[in-house]
Write a structure and sequence with these properties.
GO molecular function, one term: nucleic acid binding
Number of helices: 6
Protein name: RNase H type-1 domain-containing protein
Pfam families: RVT_3
Strand order of the largest sheet: 6-5-2-3-4-7
InterPro entries: RNase_H-like, RNase_H-like_dom_plant, RNaseH-like_sf, RNaseH_domain, RNaseH_sf
Order of helices and strands: HEEEEHEHHEHEHE
Shape: globular
Largest sheet: 6 strands, mixed
Helix content: 40-55%
Number of domains: 1
Length: 201
């Protein structure tokens, strides 16, 4: 009798633990875009790759501490992969920030490719020759700013850059916007208002 009771109890406890763990795994993560501090500019970047064609594009956006849109950029980079596209997007973004006269301030760089952040900030090794070239240029560009740091954000917090990267697929030549285009106005406003987007684990 006691053996049966123990089995029932053990089974009941196991089911409770299983249900509890399932709830933990399915609880969504709250993600939102964060404004930089006063005096800082924030560059969000992203790369996009269409697997069916192998063609890649890049895009990004720069905003200030009021979440004001300063400029956005996008371009097609031809046949490539998503990893190279991410590094190309960051490199191009930094070049444009400097070209637009923001080198005298502080820059917060943010993307949704975690490995890139680790390679840049933690100096992880890179085997791909093409990525190595981008990394070398990025490491030359970043010290041009007074202060900088690079962080990871989930895609839900990088939606404007993601949209620009996807727009890049449609372009025949590189494009820069100094006025926020209609395609991204809504997302820019959502970010400025601190809208939270849920991400499933």
């Amino acid at each position: 009798m006691s053996m049966i009771f123990n089995k029932i109890c053990s089974s009941h406890i196991f089911k409770r633990l299983l249900i509890r763990n399932c709830h933990k795994k399915t609880e969504p993560i709250k993600v939102s875009w964060k404004k930089p501090e006063i005096g800082w500019k924030k560059l969000n970047f992203d790369g996009s790759c269409k697997w069916e064609t192998g063609k890649a594009s890049i895009g990004g956006v720069v905003r200030d501490h009021n979440a004001q849109f300063l400029f956005g950029y996008a371009e097609s980079i031809g046949k490539s992969n998503s990893t190279v596209a991410e590094f190309a997007a960051l490199r191009r973004g930094l070049e444009l920030v400097l070209e637009n006269g923001y080198s005298d301030g502080d820059i917060w760089v943010e993307g949704d490719y975690k490995t890139l952040v680790e390679i840049i900030m933690l100096k992880k090794d890179v085997k791909c020759v093409e990525v190595q070239k981008h990394v070398s240029c990025i490491k030359v560009l970043l010290p041009e700013f007074r202060n900088f740091f690079v962080t990871h954000v989930y895609r839900q917090g990088n939606r404007v850059a993601d949209k620009f990267a996807r727009i890049g697929h449609e372009l025949e030549r590189p494009k820069i916007w100094h006025i926020c285009p209609s395609e991204v106005v809504g997302i820019v406003k959502d970010d400025a208002n601190g809208k939270v987007v849920l991400r499933m684990r």
